[in-house]
């Protein structure tokens, strides 16, 4: 009898292309319905993602290596040991420009204050999303 695979393929895809493509033994994703832990042979599922980090435990590394990816929403699909994340944007921890993310955070905070002062609700919401994305990128970059 063939030994069952204890890993799955994890791919993160954005309009710019493939951001991440590795094997994983465990994936933790933050969906709109709550946190989703994914193990090999999980039932097929699909869910919407929050702006948050994606955590992938690599099977070939017995020391427990974990890859972190900043994902800005999107969807996750699990289908026969293939975990596919489709997002508007995503960055691996090693690819994040921390100074750029810090500038984006400061800019978003400034935009929130200005929009609140001018009572522009839609502008406040847009700036809050920008702030959340910047904070997510900074959080993932801190895992290095």
Give the SSE map.
Elements (H helix, E strand, L loop, with lengths): L7 E7 L2 E8 L1 E6 L2 E5 L6 E13 L8 E14 L2 E5 L3 E3 L5 H20 L3 H21 L3
Parallel strand pairs: 1-7
Antiparallel strand pairs: 1-2, 3-4, 3-5, 5-6, 6-7, 6-8
Helix pairs in contact: 1-2
What labels describe this entry?
144 residues; alpha+beta; ATP Synthase, domain 1; Single alpha-helices involved in coiled-coils or other helix-helix interfaces; 2 helices; elongated; cell membrane; ATP binding; ion transport; hydrogen ion transport
Full CATH superfamily name of the largest domain:
F0F1 ATP synthase delta/epsilon subunit, N-terminal
Coarse structural class = alpha+beta
Number of strands: 8
Q: Whole-number average pLDDT? A: 92
The succession of helices and strands, N to C, reads EEEEEEEEHH
CATH class of the largest domain: Mainly Beta
Form type: elongated
Measured distance between first and last alpha carbons = 41 Å
Uncertain segments are none
State the helical fraction: 25-40%
Radius of gyration: 17 Å
Q: CATH fold name of the largest domain, please?
A: ATP Synthase, domain 1
Function: Produces ATP from ADP in the presence of a proton gradient across the membrane.
Pfam family, one: ATP-synt_DE_N
Subunit structure: F-type ATPases have 2 components, CF(1) - the catalytic core - and CF(0) - the membrane proton channel. CF(1) has five subunits: alpha(3), beta(3), gamma(1), delta(1), epsilon(1). CF(0) has three main subunits: a, b and c.
InterPro entries: ATP_F1_dsu/esu_C_sf, ATP_synth_F1_dsu/esu, ATP_synth_F1_dsu/esu_N, ATP_synth_F1_esu_C, ATPsynth_dsu/esu_N
